[in-house]
Amino acid sequence: MSVDSQKVDAVVIGAGAGGLCAAARLAHGGLHTLVVDDKDRLGGRASTEEIDGFKVNIGAIAIEFGGVFEETFHTVGAPLDIRAPEPASSFFIDGKVIDVGRGGWSLLLGQLTKQASRILEKFADARSGNLPDGRQSTEDWLKGYTSNATVHALFRNLCAAIFACNAAELPARAFLTYFTSKGAFKKFGFCPQGTIGVWNSLGSAIRRNGDIWLGTPATSIHISDGRVEGVTVLRNGERVRIDTDLVISNAGPKATVALAGSEAFPADYIAKVRNDLRPAANIVINVASREPLINHPGIVTFGKTRRLCNMANLSTTCPELAPPGWHLYVAYAVPVPALGDFDSDAEVALALEDLREQFANFNQAKILSIRVMRDDWPAQRSCAGYDLPRETGIEGLWCVGDAVKQYGNGGTQACAETAKIVTDAIFAARPRRSAGRV
């Protein structure tokens, strides 16, 4: 294989949420940016594939309004095609949909436990900054106020739905931070093209001052004297070196270190990568049905289940995602443990058992796909509360995405936030300039 050489202002490795948000901001800010990804489509673990005429989302489906994700699209001039279900979120407990609406936590907990006021007091304390330390789990924190099994099941399934972990694995500090100071999925919508539609929109913005090479894996990151100097990729069977002094990796810290070689990094950073990351797993089950399984148009979070945590009704709000006469749903389950090793087949079986138990007509439905997100392709590259810094100790090399989130944040919103933080720091520290086009 020959080695070609080219030069750009910035290379972004990985076309997932964090990478595309970062690339769009860089390109919009005047830096000619090249995005490379080994997959053949945009979106990474939040992309879309077609199965039997259905537009099936690989991972994330809910796009939040009113935060840094939406602001990214406005900033770079990319349309954001999202439809909001109404109501957006409800709970499915004992076969009944409970729409808490404006009543929120107070209305929900008040129906389930006499200890609701004690729990709500702690949410109020958290809003004023009085939080438990990062060592106490959400489960242990909740045990201090109630033993109600349904309340514990709901908290477990909220942890699972948002953070892809169990209540025994998530720091209570992270849980309370999210629900009192982050978006908490109060306002969200679905893309009628599948989630890939939002990434294609960002891709168009990137191409105004850059390029995207799909099916092009990065094979190495070049570092010399503590500074990044470029990236080598494999494109159409040929090695291509891209010279640049700015690389943003959306591949996660572990893969980033592997691309550059651990010897290039400070010892304390390598220790964090080896010891602190906690990849979080979930199970994504895409289901088609002639009969409606549930009429609620948004996302329902379940009460007592084995592994099932929540389910979205996609086709009611976005009928384009399914052929005529079909309903499309995506259900999420989280294994036990979610931050350690588990038997995938056994955990999937428990999730399917939950679905059959929750919906009497589930057996007539058609399972389009079951995807276990784990290991090097997880639901979250690191669970909330176990994130690494976005700085790598190498000048010009940054990480974005769901292993380097702000404390207590989650989802695509958190990935977009990392992109804004990193690109703001880049533009604050360097003069604007232009390089030749790829």
- Provide the CATH top-level class of the domain at 3-46 and 194-277 and 386-429: Alpha Beta
**CA-based shape:** globular
Poorly predicted runs of 5 or more residues: none
Mean pLDDT across all amino acids: 94
Q: Give the CATH superfamily of the domain at 3-46 and 194-277 and 386-429.
A: FAD/NAD(P)-binding domain
> What is the CATH architecture descriptor of the domain at 3-46 and 194-277 and 386-429?
3-Layer(bba) Sandwich
Q: At the third CATH level, what is the topology name of the domain at 3-46 and 194-277 and 386-429?
A: FAD/NAD(P)-binding domain
Number of distinct helices: 12
Give me the secondary-structure category. alpha/beta
| Main sheet record | 7 strands, mixed
- Proportion of strand residues: 15-25%
Radius of gyration: 22 Å
Can you describe this structure in just a few lines?
By secondary structure, this protein is of the alpha/beta class.
Describe this protein with a few key phrases.
438 residues, FAD/NAD(P)-binding domain, 7-stranded mixed β-sheet, 5-stranded parallel β-sheet, 12 helices, 20 strands
How would you describe the overall organization of this protein?
With 438 residues, this protein is α/β, with parallel strands linked by helices. Among the domains are: 3-46 and 194-277 and 386-429, FAD/NAD(P)-binding domain, CATH 3.50.50; 102-181, no CATH class. Helices cover 31% and strands 22% of the residues. The protein is built from 12 helices and 20 strands. It has helices at residues 17-28, 68-76, 104-110, 116-127, 138-143, 149-163, 172-181, 196-207, 253-260, 267-275, 344-358, 411-429, and strands at 3-7, 10-13, 33-36, 48-51, 54-57, 63-64, 89-93, 96-98, 188-189, 210-213, 218-224, 227-235, 238-243, 247-249, 282-289, 299-302, 308-313, 327-333, 366-373, 397-399. The strands form 5 sheets. A 7-stranded mixed beta sheet has the order 8-7-16-17-18-15-19. The chain has a 5-stranded parallel beta sheet with strand order 10-3-2-14-20, covered by helices on one side. Helix 1 links the parallel strand 2 and strand 3 (33-36). It starts with a strand and ends in a 9-residue tail after the last helix. The mean pLDDT is 94.
